[in-house]
Structure formats: C-alpha cells, structure tokens
Amino acid sequence: MKPVQLSLFETEDQESNMNDLFDDYVEGPELTFDTYEDEATATAVYPGDIIYPALALAGEAGEVADKVAKLVRDTEVNLDDFHFSLFTRDQRRELAKELGDVLWNITMLSVDLGFTLEEIARMNLEKLQSRAERGTIRGSGDNR
C-alpha cells in the first residue's frame, strides 16, 4: 500500500511552533509502543478487564473535548480561523496530559482485547490507506 501523507499543519511556522512546545518537555530515551505498553500495564489496577478501560476512555475523551471546547470559547476566534497554534504552551501541555490519559486507557483496552498498540496502529493505518486509495476518507460507516 502506498503511504498517505497527512498533516495537521497548514504552514511550516505552525509545525515549528509545535516542535518547540516539546523541546524542553520530553526527556529520556526513545519510547516505543512496546515500552509504553509494558510500563503502562504495570500501573493497571482495576477489576476484570475491558469494562473499566472502555468506560474510562469515554470519560477521558470527554475531558479532552471539554478542554478544547473551553479553549475555543475563550479564544473568541471565528471557527473558520481557529487552529491549535492559537493555544498557549501551557494550554497545549494540559491538553497533552489529558491525551496521555486517553492513551493509557486505549493501551489497557488493547491489551485486554489481546492486541498490542503496534497491531492497533498498523490496522488503523491499513484501514486509512485503503480508504484513501478508494477515495472514501470522507463519508460515514465503519467499512466504507
């Protein structure tokens, strides 16, 4: 399959600003899906499987949406002109922390279902590349 190039950035300045955000924040050796999965799983304390991380994922995703909604509200910018580069460094970091909670719950749910994060990521990329090749990125339905 031919790789699909996706970008969140409209300009090189926006990409540079985002890279600058984490220059002084991310430390330590390279982190792989496997390493994250191993270390995150060591912190998993919940009864049973699947139910807790699935419900917690919905809650954490809601927290991400709530933070973004409040940032949109407080920025008072036309939504057509709104871009994450308008967020302050602190606002981005707070949102990144919430995304970390989402990642933890995705990881635990994946593990409980018997998949690694790498397998989940590969399946998702294959699905997206297939949709891009067939011109069905836009639209609705799981199996388009």
Walk me through this protein's architecture.
- With 144 residues, this protein is mostly helical.
- The protein has a single domain, classed as MazG-like (Helix Hairpins), CATH 1.10.287.
- It is 62% helix and 0% strand.
- The protein has helices at residues 12-23, 33-41, 51-75, 89-113, 117-134.
- α3 (51-75) packs antiparallel against α4.
Averaged pLDDT, please? 84
CATH superfamily: MazG-like
Helix content: 55-70%
CATH architecture: Orthogonal Bundle
SSE string, helix = H, strand = E?
Answer: HHHHH
Overall number of domains: 1
Radius of gyration: 18 Å
**Poorly predicted ranges:** 4-8
- Broad structural category: mainly alpha
Largest beta sheet, briefly? none
Strand tally is 0
Short précis:
The chain is 62% helix and 0% strand.
List keywords for this structure.
Helix Hairpins, mainly alpha, 144 residues, globular
List the helices and strands and how they pair.
Elements: H1 12-23, H2 33-41, H3 51-75, H4 89-113, H5 117-134
Helix pairs in contact: 3-4
